[in-house]
Design goal:
The complex is a heterodimer. Chain A contains 24 helices and 50 strands. By secondary structure, chain A is α+β, with helices and mostly antiparallel strands. The radius of gyration of chain A is 38 Å and the shape is elongated. In chain A, 51% of the residues are buried. In chain B, strand 4 and strand 5 form a beta hairpin. Classes of the chains: A alpha+beta, B mainly beta.
């Protein structure tokens, strides 16, 4: 019921929304919880296990009961806390965890059989017969378990992630947080003030009171206005700091768009990583419930929540409210209600010696021992001494004391300390480096105490930041000592089913915890797992300390000896979509495009991914219906005329300096210091463990200038390796190296007519360029480099120009080639050409082969040290027991990944003779060809071998051959 | 996690690639006998590593930055980073290889 003139909602802005198919109205500033409560709704959900009717317990992020689904056009967000979801026009929400309607949940039958569903029920019951588990028990339990349901379609919502840096992060904008932020801001520090609620002020906006003689709300308003006007302050509302991590890093979840109608491009949430040199934890405290019998009915809520609904939202949570509290502070609830004209039925206080000041019945030394009302509270039973009596009431406000909101201080393995004085855990100092708790989060519960502690915490942070604290007086404020009595649970009347709930979200009762102790799950960690206490979405925020107290009592220990479970991040549930923002589909993964990319796409070439690169697969001609037709044609074109292929993806590393040759000698197995200027040499590179890292060619462009090429796949790895070798072992050598992969576009021109094509594009006649030679040339006035190297086995050249000229040169080369019966060729043809020649790629040098395995053992020079040389000599890295590179010829289709067996032997692992790495159909040799590793393969050329691929259903016999199938003496490429 | 690169300043760990323990810097010299037996110099260098609970020194590559190799001193228990130096500028860099 809405009260006139109360609350800080905007009564000029009406908002309409839906819950469980019904239309409701509220005001801007309402949460789903407050707006429904104002409409008289008390039933919000069903409990997890017993499906008991549940209402609001809290008004904040710790809400265990009022979990609803928020339904968007393409999204459905389960387990949304109604106490945190602000309403907006068109908001559609639905209760969850029910079968049928919320009022008549068919699963409520669980509540009737609850005596059989005690803790450990599943462990004890579904043990046998064993085969019933998968077929029967599990599907049924799975259907009954879980909270909410998923939309099962892609969430099309926008999410973001962001980083922020600051000198001081203030976590929570209550009195302590505002004071800390103000102190640090006036000192000139960069401050981020993160507040979970849409408004700053913390309890001040729910509890009122005076600060410096003015209403607290005015002080909050003044401080916030000053902070907002300062350029060094950033106030982040609707932002929950979710975790504390190393080096002053904090995770935070900002609800950017969840409180308003969806609009394009407005993120729903943003996950922040905030890096702070210092941080102050001013998260306040959370009120505790009391475990009295049947303490879970809708209408029973925390006293602080009652004040929040009353003072912040102008909603009376009941017509006739009763207060059950064991501390003086909660009395404010009764006073506020009466001042607002709400009837207070009684105050029930377990303490005997309480001063009676309120104008309502006060029952000292009394406790609540039972409650009535199925879908909403109707009455409570009170025991005072030996008498019991009944009070008609529709709302029971409860306060069992306060727990400091210290969760973040435990995120880096620290355990809190038990304080007898306030009967609660308090943070230990320096639990998280650079983070200090202050105010109620540190166990100081008065407003004045919070203001003082906030200033002090900021002053300490400023000292650590070498900033001078400003002169800032702490205003006068409420400073009454916290007087209370710890009360955890209340025994019911004898002979009555008096279930007293601890963990509402997971339906854990006092009896469950006692049973756990009785069955010797007496450690707090065991109790938690046995009963599931603290494992629901609220992560035990409402129940941990009380459950611990009950466990301590049941095991005859004190609370400090019983210990506590660990709070781990995140503090509140964080959607994976927010943490993974930017990671969906390709996300932020870069795409690398060749200069010839558009030219290839113009020719309808399908592009394939090669690492981050996109390369043309083949260039289809009219009439060709399969890739094989195009590929075969391109292979014949290169062997018969001339082909052009973009090979710019190869890694290119420029190495210069007097010691460049010496350096190459050290990283390659063979010698480069003796390479003449103007010549190119094939090089083999090992890892230090003796296995092959990469191969490629290096050219000597000048006396002190080399250009290394690497394979596309290993370009990054080789660069990292060279940097390491140079900086770790050759730091004093005179050389520098840098990747120039993206500086040059490079095109292979291969085939019998390659030379003729080259001659038409060069500005000056080439003259004689021997095989494995390199020369500076000029193309259309542009300086270029011409290499005579071949990866196809034909007379081949590679022409490199600065990238800006790449596309023009590619188009020009292709056009010229076409006049000569040639044209472009893609990756498929390139692969066939190199397999025919037995050239290696990373299909073969895959990280587990030695130089000897690929037939290049002789390239490891015995006359010099090089990376990997020592380890390459290890026994076991060479010799007949190794799988060695061979060729395979087959009449039928073969496949890479197939394994090799001797004909006649069973296809079993122990008979495995090797495996196939690359295959192709060779139009040149009219045969299927493969490269493979075969045990003692070099000695077995001519043998028959059985090739089996279970995956593709291939089982054929092949001939083992030398890995070079075509033009073995290399006459074609030497020209 | 952040590392303070001596050349670039404090940077997010996403800019760096982890390689391994400091031992990789102590490559057996060219004249060392290629002792590959268990416990020998090369076996030690290639395969044997401590797994310290406490201070450790390891190698990181600033691949999204200046391409410098860094020797990072940190604590595996507290996650404190106590020092970052350039591999190329460290003491003894001149004597390797």
């Amino acid at each position: 019921m809405r009260l006139e003139g109360k609350g800080i909602i905007d009564r000029t802005r009406e908002v309409s929304f839906r819950f469980d198919g019904r239309d409701y109205r509220g005001f801007r500033g309402d949460t789903l919880a407050s707006a429904l409560l104002a409409n008289g709704v008390k039933l919000f959900g069903r409990s997890f296990k017993y499906h008991r009717p549940r209402g609001l317990l809290t008004a904040g992020p710790e809400e265990p009961n009022a979990l609803v689904e928020v339904i968007g056009k393409t999204s459905r967000t389960p387990n949304t806390r109604a106490t945190m979801q602000e309403i907006f026009d068109g908001l559609e929400s639905r209760s969850q965890n029910r079968l049928g309607s919320l009022r008549h949940d068919l699963m409520a039958v669980n509540d009737l059989v609850s005596p059989f569903l005690s803790a450990g029920f599943y462990y004890k019951t579904f043990m046998w017969p064993r085969h019933f588990w998968e077929g029967l028990y599990e599907p049924i339990i799975r259907r009954a378990a879980g909270l909410g349901s998923l939309a099962k379609v892609h969430d099309e919502g926008v999410y973001e992630k962001a980083w922020a840096h600051c000198d001081l992060l203030v976590i929570g904008a209550g009195p302590a947080g505002l004071m800390a932020a103000l102190t640090a801001a006036r000192a000139g520090a960069d401050v981020i003030l993160a507040e979970e609620q849409p408004l700053t002020g913390g309890r001040l906006i729910a509890d009122g009171g005076l600060i410096g003689g003015d209403p607290a709300a005015q002080w909050v308003h003044r401080v916030e206005a000053e902070l907002r006007a300062m350029p060094n302050v950033r106030i982040m509302t609707r932002t929950t700091v979710t975790g504390a991590y190393d080096n002053g890093t904090y995770g935070a979840l900002e609800r950017v768009g969840l409180h308003r109608s969806p609009r394009p491009n407005l993120p729903r949430e943003c996950f922040w990583r905030i890096v702070a040199r210092r941080a102050v934890l001013t998260t306040g405290a959370q009120e505790r419930h009391i475990a009295f019998p049947m303490n879970d009915r809708p209408g029973i809520m925390l006293a602080s929540a009652v004040r929040t609904y009353l003072n912040r939202f102008g909603v009376a949570p009941g017509k006739r409210v009763t207060l059950f509290a064991a501390n003086d502070q909660a009395r404010q609830t009764a006073r506020d209600l009466m001042a607002a004209g709400v009837q207070v039925a009684a105050i029930i206080d377990p303490r005997e010696d309480v001063s009676v000041v309120e104008e309502c019945p006060v029952h000292a030394g009394a406790v609540v021992i039972d409650t009535k009302g199925r879908h909403a509270l109707q009455a409570i039973t009170v025991r005072k001494g030996s008498e019991t009596f009944r009070i008609e009431t529709d709302c029971l406000a409860v306060s069992g004391g306060w727990n400091p909101g210290l969760h973040l201080t435990c995120h880096m393995n620290s355990r809190p300390r038990w304080s007898e004085e306030i009967a609660a855990f308090v943070p230990v100092e320096a639990a998280v480096p650079g983070l200090a708790a202050a105010g109620a989060a540190n166990g100081s519960f008065s407003t004045h105490g919070a203001l003082t502690a906030g200033r002090l915490a900021a002053e300490r942070a400023l000292a650590a930041l070498d900033l001078r604290a400003p002169d800032l007086a702490v205003p006068a404020a409420e400073d009454t000592p916290y007087t209370h009595r710890a009360i955890w649970s209340v025994e019911g009347a004898k002979g009555r089913n008096g279930r007293a709930w601890l963990d509402f979200a997971n339906d854990v009762t006092v009896k469950d915890v006692q049973l756990s102790a009785q069955e010797n799950f007496a450690s707090v960690e065991h109790m938690k797992r046995y009963t599931t206490q603290g494992m629901a979405p609220d992560q035990g925020k409402n129940s941990n300390v009380a459950a611990l107290a009950v466990l301590a009592d049941a095991t005859g220990r004190g609370i400090p000896e019983t210990g506590t479970t660990t709070f781990r991040p995140p503090y509140v549930p964080v959607s994976i979509a927010a943490m993974g923002a930017g990671g969906r589909a390709k996300g932020f993964a870069p795409e690398r495009f060749l200069t010839s990319d558009q030219a290839s796409r113009d020719r309808l070439a399908p592009m394939i991914e090669a690492g981050l690169w996109y390369r043309p697969s083949y260039f289809p001609k009219p009439g060709e219906t399969t890739w094989r037709e195009a590929c075969d044609r391109e292979v014949r074109m290169v062997r018969g005329a001339v082909g052009v292929c973009d090979v710019s993806t190869l890694g290119k590393i420029d190495i210069q300096g007097p010691d460049a040759g010496r350096f190459l000698d050290f990283v390659y197995t063979n010698t480069f210091s003796t390479l003449p200027v103007g010549r190119v040499r094939y090089g083999l590179m090992l890892r230090e463990d003796g296995l092959v890292m990469d191969d490629g060619t290096s050219a000597r462009l000048a006396e002190t200038h080399y250009l290394m090429t690497t394979t596309t796949a290993a370009a990054g790895q080789v660069m990292r390796h060279l940097d390491f070798v140079q900086q770790a072992f050759c730091a004093t050598w005179k050389l520098r190296l840098i990747s120039v992969t993206e500086a040059f576009a490079q095109f292979a021109i291969a085939g019998p007519k390659a030379r003729a094509l080259i001659d038409t594009v060069l500005d000056q006649p080439l003259g004689d360029l021997p095989f494995m030679g390199v020369r500076p040339v000029s193309v259309g006035g542009v300086e270029a480099r011409l290499f005579r190297i071949s990866f196809s086995g034909e007379e081949g050249y590679e022409l490199a120009v600065p990238v800006d000229y790449g596309e023009a040169l590619f188009r020009d080369l292709v056009a010229r080639a076409e006049t000569m019966g040639g044209g472009p060729y893609g990756m498929e043809a390139l692969n066939v050409l190199r397999i025919e020649k037995g050239f290696l790629t990373h299909a073969e040098i895959h990280g587990r082969v030695s130089a000897d395995d690929v037939g290049l053992g002789a390239m490891v020079s015995p006359r010099k040290d090089c990376i990997g040389r020592a380890a390459s000599q290890r026994p076991g890295l060479w010799g007949p027991e190794r799988e060695q590179l061979v060729g395979l010829k087959a009449a039928g289709a073969i496949s890479a990944g197939a394994h090799l067996f001797r004909p006649g032997f069973a296809v079993e692992r122990e008979n495995d003779q090797g495996y196939v790495t690359s295959v192709c159909w060779s139009p040149t040799l009219d045969s299927w060809l493969g490269l493979a590793f075969l045990t003692d393969g070099r000695a077995r050329h001519g043998e028959r071998i059985r090739l089996v691929d279970h995956l593709r259903g291939i089982d054929v016999e092949c001939e083992v051959t030398h890995p070079v199938f075509f033009d073995a003496d290399g006459g074609r490429m030497r020209g | 996690m952040r590392l303070t690169c001596p050349l670039c300043g404090p940077r997010d760990r996403r800019e760096f690639t982890y390689y391994g323990a400091e031992e990789y810097l102590h490559r057996p010299g060219p004249d060392a006998a290629p002792d590959l037996s268990q416990g020998g110099a090369w076996d030690n260098y290639l395969h044997l590593r401590d797994n310290p609970a406490g201070p450790t020194r390891d190698l990181w590559y600033h691949d999204q930055g200046c391409a410098a190799w860094l020797l990072v001193s940190r604590n595996t228990l507290t996650h404190d980073i106590t020092g970052v130096e350039l591999v190329a500028a460290r003491k003894g860099a001149r004597d390797e290889a």
